[in-house]
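A common beginner's mistake is to predict each chain separately and then try to dock the pieces by hand. The better habit, illustrated here, is to supply every component at once so that their relative placement is modeled jointly.
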Amino acid sequence: VIPAYLDTLSAALSFDRALAQRVRQEVEDHLQQAVTADPSGDGIAAERRAIAAFGEPEALAAQFAAISVAEQMRKLGRALVLVIASVFIAMKGRVAWYAIAGGGVGHDQTALTAIIGSIDRYAFWLSVLIGACSVAYVISRPTPSPADGRYRKQLRRILVLCLAAITALVLSVVSDGALTTIGLTRADFGARSLVPIGTMAIEIACVGILVFQFWIMKRRTFFTAALHSR
Amino acid sequence: MEGEMLKGHLDMIVLAALAAGPAHGYAVIEEIRRRSRQAFDLPEGTIYPALHRLEQAGLLSSKWVTAESGRRRRVYALTRRGEEAFAGQRVIWQQFSDAMGGLLAGARQRRRPA
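With all components supplied together, the output reads:
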């Protein structure tokens, strides 16, 4: 009886494997202790009583899912701040390198590179602004209980804000990539190209991490909503 | 005791149970029952999300230990922040309890108009 109960609980938490495994081990230990402490000595009946006293697996999974979402929300907030800072450092590092070693599009601007440069700047500062709003929103409001009607509304707002910040940052990095590519095509490939290519790779990797964290958040939110609507 | 009333104070109940020392989930439930003289008989499963939530908030720390039975067991302990939070909640609760006690005592003494 206990393995079937644990399977149901683990399956409901399958969107967060680490949590599912930890909860399974903790609950299994609890139920086994309850069975051992049962005075009846009837194994199956004791297991059933232990499970009945523990509660419905879906209801329990819904409570854990809300905790998992809250944890991911904090991770996403941290990732947003770190990635924006890293992209900024990589951009400034590349510009500093162009100033020392030459290259880039700074001295040879065309209408196209000027437009891309503007998009890059505005998109980046927009991502900073929205990112700061997202983080301030998460910090300033305590997460309401999933049973509270405000819970979904608050989660949706956070997701929309994070998505807007990520979209602006992706646009900035794509513009950066376009400018770097144009700059590289105008210069000879060589050791001097390593810094622009390296910093671009850092920017792309950082944005990739952020998009992945957002995807995890979206996935957990979806499963949590499904568990709470049961 | 009303379930909803208990749920509203679950975090403080768990912190109080762990104030005596580190314990695993089952022992926390036993401690709550014992110290409340069986008045707090919560659905056992509700303790675990509370433990995870309090750990996430930095009020508890936890680690796996191996029990005599050979099973792995998660043991929770109050962190320094947890001890401070519990001390703060204890003062607030004491003030609330004294005020409520006075209010109810006054209500008992009131005589019905003839």
